[in-house]
Amino acid sequence: MKSLKYWLLEHPSIVSFRWSPTQSWGSTWWFLISAISFYIAAAVTLYLILKFCRCSRPIPLGPIPAIHSIAMSLISVTIFIGMFFSSYAEVQDTRWLWQRTRTTPFEWLLCFPLGIRPSGRVFFWSYVFYLSRFLHLLRTFFIILRHRKLSFFRLFNHSILLLMSFLWLEFSQSFQVLAILFSTLVYSMVYGYRFLTEIGLPGKSFSFTVNCQMLLLVCNLVCHVGVLSLHFLRGGCNGIGAWVFNSVLNVAILVHFLKSYVEMHWQRKATHNSSSKSDEGSAKQSRHNAKLKT
Questions:
Q1: CA 217, CA 286: separation in Å to the nearest integer?
Q2: What pLDDT is attached to residue 294?
Q3: Residue 239 to residue 131: CA distance in whole angstroms
Q4: How far is Cα 152 from Cα 132, in angstroms, rounded to an integer?
Q5: What is the pLDDT of residue 292?
Q6: Residue 213 and residue 186: Cα distance in Å, rounded?
Q7: Which of 103, 125, 218, 242 could form a disulfide with 171 if both were Cys (CB 3.0 to 4.6 A apart)?
Q8: What kind and span of H or E run contains 36?
Q9: What burial class does residue 26 get, using C-beta atoms within 10 Å of its C-beta: 0-12 exposed, 13-18 middle, 19+ buried?
Q10: Please, is 138 exposed, middle or buried when counting C-beta atoms within 10 Å of its C-beta (0-12, 13-18, 19+)?
Q11: First to last CA, the chain
């Protein structure tokens, strides 16, 4: 237990972490813009090459998607545990200050005080989450190679997730602790479920994924209301400009998922109705055949 605590909380790289262009890989705007541009260009290029070559058969990827899914699930679990205990340690270390300002731990999770710097345990795990978004981008290429599908929303969604995790660190944005805890909890379940389907267990990963994403977005939306309330009641939250930008993007993503959720519900209902009608028709035909025999 002491060894785990050391590697998750007390390691010098965690305690002395500082987000800066000289100490953190990928911490510049130029790098972020280049990475997103390269991701979009590579995905579109691969999709067009396969389309022009008229390759209709899925390209076998072997165990790569399964390895990717289990790796993302384990990374998400690690970030969740690290962020959870780092937040608890931060609460214990700064309790004296909160008593003077009459701030509760939950208010701190939603609203960072003005002037906070992106350094220490909490921001280290936020940085690890940011790095994990690059590994998350690989799933786009798996879908292109397997299903020849590429949607604008997938490119938009993955790019925005990478951008938002960068803004959390760049502007020491409020609410990022809860956002990372919610996200890693959901991703650990989603990618764990995808791993099980990759190794042959039956399941409908799309339905499960959409439901989990909907739950995540709704939780984020509720917490955003709390951040806005505390911003006006407590005299301001740090990084509120980046928070407003992220909120607008979250609303756009939520609207799309609501649309997908409704479409999925109606497809299920239509499939159920058609199967019921076919069963009813088969029963009538069986009764008619029985009458003819008699």
A1: 49
A2: 45
A3: 21
A4: 22
A5: 45
A6: 8
A7: 242
A8: helix 29-52
A9: middle
A10: middle
A11: 78
**In sequence order, what are the beta bridge partners of 18?**
119
Measure the CA–CA gap between 39 and 141, rounded to whole angstroms. Answer: 10
CB 242 within 8 A of CB 227: no
Place of tokens 């995905």: 43
Q: Are 141 and 44 in contact (CB under 8 A)?
A: no
**Residue 82: which H helix or E strand, with range?**
helix 64-93
Residue count of the chain:
294
How distant, in Å, are the alpha carbons of 8, 96, 186, 246, 261 from that of 156? 32, 43, 20, 13, 18
Can you tell me the distance from the alpha carbon of 23 to that of 19, in angstroms, rounded to the nearest whole number? 7
Q: How confident is the model at residue 69 (pLDDT cuts 50, 70, 90)?
A: very high
- C-alpha span between 70 and 179 (Å, rounded): 22
- Using CA atoms of 264, 184, 63, 41 in order, give the dihedral in degrees to the nearest 10: 80
- What distance in Å separates the CA atoms of residue 123 and residue 168, rounded to the nearest whole number? 9
Handedness of CA 214, 220, 226, 228 (dihedral sign): negative
63-77, 149-163, 227-241, 269-283: least confidently modelled range: 269-283
